[in-house]
Amino acid sequence: MHVGHFIILFKPHVSLLEVKEYAKQVLRQGGEITHEFDFINGFSAALTDQSLQAFQSLRDTDIVDSIEPDQRVTTQG
C-alpha cells in the first residue's frame, strides 16, 4: 500500500546508475516510479511505508539530498 507520493533528490555525486538502482528498489518494495527527472538527480514515486523509511534513513548519509511530498504548486498573479 502506498503511503504517499514523494520527490526523492540525490546528492550531486550519486551516479545515474545508482539512482536507477534506488528506483528499482522502490519497484521491488511495491512502489511506483511516477517520473524520472532529466535535469535533476532524482525521481518522483508513490512509496510504500518500507520505501519511505529506507529513504529517510539515507537522509543523514551522503546519498539522499531531500525527500519532499510531491504536490501541485500554483501561483496567483
Characterize the structure shown.
It is a single chain. The protein has 77 residues and is α+β, with helices and mostly antiparallel strands. The protein has one domain: Peptidase S8 propeptide/proteinase inhibitor I9 (Alpha-Beta Plaits, 2-Layer Sandwich), CATH 3.30.70.80. It is 30% helix and 35% strand. It is built from 2 helices and 4 strands; from the N terminus they run βαββαβ. It has a 4-stranded antiparallel β-sheet with strand order 2-3-1-4, with helices on one face. The longest helix is centred in the first third of the chain and has 13 residues, at 16-28. It is globular and about 40 Å long. The model has no long low-confidence stretch (mean pLDDT 91).
